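lol forgot to send this yesterday, sorry. struct tokens for the thing we talked abt
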């Protein structure tokens, strides 16, 4: 069956060229529109399978405006544009296009992009239906399994977490029978960790007594239909929801009622710390799950009289799988901030597919760890996981490193060599700092993504590969595109599923847990007792903005443990406040070389401080090498590399 294409392009020559190419390739053209308004008229007459849109069009509306209409109707679309304005690109990205072609374009690129867009669209629909069918089956199984009401609701909540993001979930009968708060509720405290919240727990958290809570519940008459609210926009009838939003610092919620056969209803509430997180799509999903939710309400929530389980605990439900569980894979990801948990939810959700993933975040936020977790949770987990630091490869060698070369292809190529893509065949390749790739290499990488084949330097025939790509960068790629240093089409090909890791300054509630984790680890490694972290050190760490993120925090803890005598609590061994207010630190880091310089200087200062502590002594039981847990020869080599001289650590009161 011929696929129908709508062309929305105001340049006659380009539009006609598209028509000729697509007709020759077997597509049926439903219309050629020069404006979004005209395209809307074509859409009313005949719905296309896929649309090709220019961003800038004649008329008041842009291609982005029309793309939103196509998205509502679940019609696939790709952008065709020469526009590289950063603001426009960021707006276009919000419509989640299925591809992007840069003008001028090659015929082959156009056809390949259309094929991929159609494949993604079809499979996203199929996979969505399969996932929802599996979710329905899973919920039904939970309802019929032998366990108490609270455990059942918890398991249902955990099953729905990837589909309905929430930080707090509650379910209960409306209207309230006695004015008492009798909902079953869970607060998410970590990845697959939830704390039960009942009436007593809610009163403690909200700082209210029974009388006040009763007054609030009596005034609460939530909607009898599915609704979405943000904090500040709740009505008087949502007094209970307003209290929950405020005391738990939540920003938005969705209520979904289901009717019981007793003249009552059960309301499901999903709350998030993110504003505007819920949409009509979430309500549509719950509507498709309505039969399951009604069964859960009838059989479990209404008759929630099973033996009470322990209250006030954060716990996780054991999973009986031979496959690696999410808990096991993410066990070394420390923290429970909602921004981090949202990122891990996305990683777990996308892991089972072959979709390309782009991990965004500042240096030191844990991008490589998340990439490894995605591989470990994927069907490719038994295949290779090849890591490539694009910033560390010289520009003259990057193509050979990625794609391999034949013997004699260039001076120094004394033997045939496989590249990283070939080594990753059947597995995953992690392209770290992909924003550092030269433009010429970006073009070749785009071909690899489109055609799933590589060619050795000096080779004459393509080599088919089966590789999943996970890329990462600490750069703002939209800004790089606007400056002409990153290809727009490559960006859209990589940005199929973006995951943004929050900087440490945005998740300061995790600093204490991270600090304790690193302190314990280093104390064990250096065979020292851990007696805790001084309150003054914890306060300074909480006040600091951590430009180096988790990696910098780890270095600070390592230094504190090394210099600790093992009898007292850890104290800070460097002035974080000075680093925070030093203009050179704030404004001097602009390039990768600046970052490397700071890291080199930090390492030099660290080693020098250890040498000062040992009065320059390197070898022996109490020497610097022993304190640093490295070989003396390794330390001496590192000192030479960092240009550390005796003068740097000489104690003026000693004879050294």
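and heres what i got for the seq, position by position
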């Amino acid at each position: 069956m011929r696929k129908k294409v709508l062309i929305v392009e105001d340049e006659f020559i380009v539009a006609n060229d598209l028509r000729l190419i697509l007709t020759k390739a077997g597509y049926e053209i439903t219309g050629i529109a020069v404006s979004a308004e005209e395209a809307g008229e074509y859409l009313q007459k005949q719905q296309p399978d896929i649309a090709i849109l220019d961003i800038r069009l004649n008329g008041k509306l842009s291609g982005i405006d029309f793309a939103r209409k196509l998205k509502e109707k679940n019609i696939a679309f790709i952008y065709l544009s020469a526009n590289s304005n950063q603001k426009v690109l960021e707006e276009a990205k919000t419509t989640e296009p299925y591809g992007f072609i840069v003008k001028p374009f090659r015929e082959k690129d156009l056809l390949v992009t259309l094929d991929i867009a159609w494949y993604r669209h079809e499979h996203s629909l199929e996979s969505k239906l399969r996932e929802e069918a599996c979710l329905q089956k899973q919920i039904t199984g939970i309802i019929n399994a032998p366990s108490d009401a609270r455990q059942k609701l918890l398991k249902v909540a955990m099953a729905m977490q990837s589909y309905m993001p929430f930080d707090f979930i509650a379910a209960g009968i409306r209207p309230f029978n006695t004015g008492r708060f009798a909902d079953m509720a869970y607060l998410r405290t970590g990845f697959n960790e939830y704390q039960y919240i009942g009436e007593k727990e809610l009163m403690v958290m909200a700082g209210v007594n029974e009388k006040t809570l009763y007054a609030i519940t009596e005034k609460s008459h939530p909607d009898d239909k599915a609704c979405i609210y943000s904090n500040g926009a709740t009505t008087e009838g949502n007094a209970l929801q307003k209290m929950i939003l405020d005391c738990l610092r939540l920003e938005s919620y969705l209520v979904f009622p289901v009717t019981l056969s007793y003249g009552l209803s059960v309301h499901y509430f999903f709350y998030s710390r993110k504003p505007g997180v819920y949409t009509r799509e979430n309500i549509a999903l719950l509507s498709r799950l309505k039969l399951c939710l009604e069964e859960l309400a009838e059989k479990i929530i209404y008759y929630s009289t099973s033996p009470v389980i322990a209250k006030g605990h954060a716990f996780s439900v054991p999973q009986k799988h031979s496959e690696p569980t999410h808990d096991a894979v993410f066990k070394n990801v420390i923290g429970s901030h909602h921004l981090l948990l949202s990122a891990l939810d996305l990683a777990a959700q996308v892991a089972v597919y072959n979709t390309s993933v782009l991990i965004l975040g500042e240096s030191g936020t844990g991008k490589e760890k998340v990439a490894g977790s995605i591989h470990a949770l994927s069907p490719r987990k038994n295949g290779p996981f090849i890591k490539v630091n694009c910033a560390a490869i010289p520009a003259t060698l990057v193509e050979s490193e990625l794609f391999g070369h034949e013997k004699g292809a260039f001076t120094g190529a004394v033997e045939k060599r496989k590249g990283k893509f070939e080594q990753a065949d059947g597995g995953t390749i992690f392209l770290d700092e992909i924003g550092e790739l030269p433009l010429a290499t970006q073009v070749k990488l785009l071909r690899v993504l489109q055609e799933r084949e590589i060619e050795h330097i000096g080779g004459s025939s393509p080599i088919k590969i089966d590789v999943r790509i996970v890329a990462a960068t600490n750069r703002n790629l939209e800004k790089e595109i606007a400056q002409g240093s990153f290809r727009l089409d490559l960006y859209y090909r990589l940005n199929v599923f973006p995951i943004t890791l929050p900087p440490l300054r945005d998740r300061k509630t995790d600093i204490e847990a991270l600090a304790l984790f690193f302190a314990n680890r280093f104390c064990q490694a250096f065979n020292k007792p851990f007696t805790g972290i001084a309150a003054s050190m914890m306060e300074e760490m909480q006040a600091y903005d951590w430009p180096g993120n988790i990696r910098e925090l780890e270095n600070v803890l390592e230094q504190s443990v090394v210099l600790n005598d093992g009898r007292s609590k850890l104290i800070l061994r460097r002035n974080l406040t000075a680093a925070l207010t030093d203009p050179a630190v704030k404004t001097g880091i602009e390039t990768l070389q600046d970052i490397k310089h700071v890291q080199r200087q930090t390492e030099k200062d660290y080693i020098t401080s250890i040498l000062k502590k040992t009065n320059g002594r390197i070898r022996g039981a109490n020497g610097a090498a022993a304190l640093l847990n490295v070989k003396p020869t390794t330390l001496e080599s590192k000192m030479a590399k960092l240009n550390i001289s005796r003068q740097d650590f000489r104690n003026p009161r000693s004879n050294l």
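The first strand starts at residue 4 and ends at 8. anyway ping me if u want another try
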